[in-house]
Design a protein that fits this description.
Largest sheet: 6 strands, antiparallel
Order of helices and strands: HHEEEHEEEH
Distance between the termini: 37 Å
Shape: globular
Domain GAF: 37-150
CATH architecture: 2-Layer Sandwich
Protein name: Putative GAF sensor protein
Number of domains: 1
Structural class: alpha+beta
CATH class: Alpha Beta
Strand content: 25-35%
GO cellular component, one term: cytosol
Number of strands: 6
Radius of gyration: 14 Å
GO molecular function: L-methionine-(R)-S-oxide reductase activity
CATH topology: Beta-Lactamase
Pfam family, one: GAF
Length: 158
């Protein structure tokens, strides 16, 4: 990954090709998870948690067995869902209330997925490397999430 901006533009193009004209959100989340897990380095878990009845419920993912339910406002994913803001954590062990589904995870990037301004899910990416995610990673993953959000909006309005 010599040039992260180019790398994420390539991933964005691949994401759009995968989800273009597909109306099933679960299928799209599954393919996005698989793509990111395959292409990102030093990640040990990539997946979605869907917001259902004020609780995050495990959705499509790649990696080890994961926590099935996370209360909104708890842990990195729950904080992302309650604030609607990206959580880029260089050392999850320093995050108050961190939920350790996999004890080998040390850094985390969580991006909210929003429809009509409301969080409907979060994309969670874990790494065994401390300080794995930088601003370019955050911006690149946000572009991929925005493509998913646009896909969902297009299907709702179709």
């Amino acid at each position: 990954m010599s040039n992260k901006a180019e790398f994420y533009q390539e991933l964005l193009g691949q994401t759009k090709a995968l989800i273009n004209n597909e109306s099933d959100i679960i299928a799209n989340m599954a393919n996005i998870s698989a793509l990111l897990f395959e292409r990102l380095t030093e990640v040990n878990w990539v997946g979605f948690y869907r917001l259902i009845d004020n609780e995050l419920v495990l959705g499509p993912f790649q990696g080890k067995v994961a926590c099935i339910r996370i209360p909104v406002g708890t842990g990195v994913c729950g904080t992302c869902s309650s604030t609607g803001e990206v959580q880029r954590i260089s050392d999850v062990h320093q995050f108050d209330g961190h939920i350790a589904c996999d004890a080998s995870s040390n850094a985390e990037l969580v991006v909210p997925v929003k429809v009509a301004g409301k969080v409907i899910a979060v994309l969670d990416i874990d790494s065994t490397a401390f300080d794995r995610f930088d601003l370019q990673d955050e911006q690149g993953v946000m572009l991929i999430v925005q493509a998913l959000e646009q896909n969902i909006a297009d299907m709702v309005n179709a």
